[in-house]
Amino acid sequence: MESKNKKLCIIIPCILDEESIKENVRTIKQNLLNANPDFSFDLIVHIDDHLRPYSTGTLNSIKELYTTLENTPNCKIKVLTASPKKGLVEVDGILLEEFLSTEAQVSLRIDDDVTISHPVYLNEFFNLIDDTKVIRLSYGWDPKFSSEDPFIINSVFAESDTILAYENDRYFCSEHGNFFTRKMAEELLKVYNRVNPPKGSEDILEDQAQKCTWYRSLPIYTLAWKTENCKVDPPKQALNNEDYVRWRLPIGNHFLLDRIRRNKPCGEIGYSN
Q1: The domain 7-263: what is its CATH number?
Q2: What is the pLDDT of residue 192?
Q3: Which of 9, 59, 84, 220 has the lowest CB atom count within 10 Å?
Q4: What is the SS3 string spanning the chain?
Q5: Whole-angstrom Cα distance, residue 46 to residue 15?
Q6: Exposed (0-12), middle (13-18) or buried (19+): which is 81, by Cβ within 10 Å?
Q7: Displacement of CA 118 from its chain's centroid (Å)
């Protein structure tokens, strides 16, 4: 890909959950926008009119939370809303298309329920992002498990002041924390069925990405927050699912953590469509 400009498009699928989104907005401002004053950001949010048990919010209240970021001088906001909801299958495709309508050459896909736990200093790794590899921010569900397990291995591909980029030993696609180039978005949209998905389809972006042969061929590198003793432990054999808390990459070295929504009494409830 050509030399990148200092623009990043952040794409976020969103539902009605004020508690989670307040933390999402707060840490986007603190650890992405304010941490990178020399970058300009397009933040595109799609809010579905979908309310889970133990959550609060309306389309207007969630929109107001995100539009507070307009006060940050390096950020431009676009909020899309849908009532009735469109569902994640369709929204993921919409957000990739919206990214391609901006001048940014790179997008970052995060969920509305993640906390960005550390400053993400783009200048330290932005040169790594290109069409030959997938770069992603480490993600986990606090306190249960890391999404980097079982793929991540204790082999450092690149290192900077605050970043360790670890290799992975096999292909996987996670929607949380992936940086997509324009070519990646274009290739994924060629196979992405979001307009007329099969009835009952749960083929969200990370599932449909497996249908893209080119994207599946790319090596994947996971970014961890660098600390003195950070390392990836070898795989462990669990006796059963209850005995095993999966944090081979320590929780404190993860950039993205879901600390609120999944820990509510109703747990994780999908809304693919």
Answers
A1: 3.90.550.10
A2: 81
A3: 84
A4: CCCCCCEEEEEEEEEECHHHHHHHHHHHHHHHHCCCCCCEEEEEEEEEEEECCCCCCCHHHHHHHHHHHHHCCCEEEEEEEECCCCCHHHHHHHHHHHHHCCCCCEEEECCCCCEECCCCCHHHCHHHCECCEEEEECEEECCCEECCCCCEEEEEEEECCCEEEEEECCCCCCCCCEEEEHHHHHHHHHHCCCCCCCCCCCCCHHHHHHHCHHHHCCCEEEEEECCCCCCCCCCCCCCCHHHCCECCCCHHHCCEEECCHHHCCCCCCCCCC
A5: 8
A6: middle
A7: 14
pTM: 0.93
**For the stretch 184-211, what's the b/e string if a residue is b when 16 or more beta carbons lie within 10 angstroms of its beta carbon?**
bbebbeeebebeebeeebebbbeebbee
How confident is the model over 119-135, as a mean pLDDT?
Answer: 97
d(C-alpha 156, C-alpha 173), whole Å? 20
pLDDT in tens, 43-94: 999 999 999 988 999 999 999 999 999 999 999 999 999 999 998 888 999 9
Question: How far is Cα 176 from Cα 206, in angstroms, rounded to an integer?
Answer: 9
Q: What are phi and psi of 16, to 5 degrees?
A: -90, 105
Per-residue CA distances from 225 to 136, 153, 154, 202, 263 (Å): 12, 15, 14, 32, 24
How many percent of the chain have pLDDT more than 90? 70
